[in-house]
């Protein structure tokens, strides 16, 4: 039974960190003519409304992307700003793209996209907005293991679980190990929460032991509500594209200076 719904959290500070790095990676990777594959294990519904009751209820977008835009956190021309502007131009001013539509902004007709989303309603909504991709109503890791190495072989896989199942923390290093062995050129990006009880740390230790050269970018922020255990956002990226380490450092500085 899946209870997590990203509509309550879309556009929050964790999305800002994750989506800024995703957009920067894809902007760089699509500069070359060579086609690529884009895969997501946990895609969500693809498109959110920042004036929806869910978003208003938590106020997370207000404290996230809406504050960042009002205060100009991201520089002019930043890939995430470009993607947001393009999506709002077609989908309306209150639209906020999830990771699939951010990717869709950068992908070309020669690229391939595979998106897994297990929740029936989220999958149905995703299928409506992501015509550029093949949607799968399947466990995301099963999909990724079946497709990798993808064709074209150049590409990026985003793993963005809701961590509802605590076993995710132990399963992820093993899943990534298998994927990296089959697809040694793949850019594999994992989002994870920074938690007050440090539950995420054994997973990161396991990943660091197996892949010491991966990029680890973390930003801290106040909990969305008093007593909430998420106090930051992390992105762990294997084979980061050129320039992404510098971009991660810039984003981390922005979060430190603004919060
Ligand atoms: C954090 S949200 C995804 C947000 C999205 N990546 C974005 O940035 O816009 C996680 C999603 O994973 C879905 N999900 C949970 N378990 C899954 C699984 N085993 N396979 C595929 N999707 C799953 C949930 O229904 C939820 O929509």
Automatic annotation (TrEMBL):
The active site is at residue 160. Keywords: Methyltransferase, RNA-binding, rRNA processing, S-adenosyl-L-methionine, Transferase. S-adenosyl-L-methionine binds at residues 19, 42, 99, 117, 139-140, 160. The keyword Nucleotide-binding does not apply. InterPro entries: RlmJ. Its EC number is 2.1.1.266. It catalyses: adenosine(2030) in 23S rRNA + S-adenosyl-L-methionine = N(6)-methyladenosine(2030) in 23S rRNA + S-adenosyl-L-homocysteine + H(+). The record marks 4 as: Interaction with substrate rRNA. It is an enzyme of class 2 (transferase). Belongs to the RlmJ family. Specifically methylates the adenine in position 2030 of 23S rRNA. Monomer. PANTHER family: RIBOSOMAL RNA LARGE SUBUNIT METHYLTRANSFERASE J. This is Ribosomal RNA large subunit methyltransferase J.
């Amino acid at each position: 039974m899946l209870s997590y719904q990203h509509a309550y959290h879309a556009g929050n500070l964790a999305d800002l960190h994750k989506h800024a790095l995703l957009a920067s990676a894809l902007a760089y990777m699509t500069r070359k003519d060579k086609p690529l594959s884009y895969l997501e294990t946990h895609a969500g519904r693809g498109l959110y409304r920042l004036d929806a009751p869910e978003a208003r209820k938590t106020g997370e977008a207000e404290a996230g992307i809406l504050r960042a835009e009002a205060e100009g956190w991201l520089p002019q021309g930043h890939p995430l700003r470009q993607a947001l502007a393009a999506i709002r131009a077609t989908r309306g001013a209150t639209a906020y793209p999830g990771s699939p539509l951010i990717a869709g902004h950068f992908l070309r007709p020669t690229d391939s996209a595979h998106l897994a989303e297990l929740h029936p309603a989220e999958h149905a909504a995703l299928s409506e907005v992501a015509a550029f991709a093949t949607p799968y109503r399947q466990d995301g890791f099963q999909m990724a293991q079946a497709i990798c190495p993808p064709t074209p072989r150049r590409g990026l896989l985003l793993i963005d679980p809701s961590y509802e199942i605590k076993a995710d923390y132990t399963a992820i290093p093993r899943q990534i190990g298998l994927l990296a062995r089959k697809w040694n050129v793949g850019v594999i990006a994992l989002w994870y929460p920074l938690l007050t009880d440090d539950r995420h740390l054994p997973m990161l230790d396991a990943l660091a032991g197996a892949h010491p050269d991966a990029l680890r970018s973390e930003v801290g922020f106040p909990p969305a509500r008093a007593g909430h255990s998420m106090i930051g956002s992390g992105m762990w990226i294997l084979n980061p594209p050129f320039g992404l380490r510098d971009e991660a450092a810039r984003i981390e500085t922005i979060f430190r200076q603004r919060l």
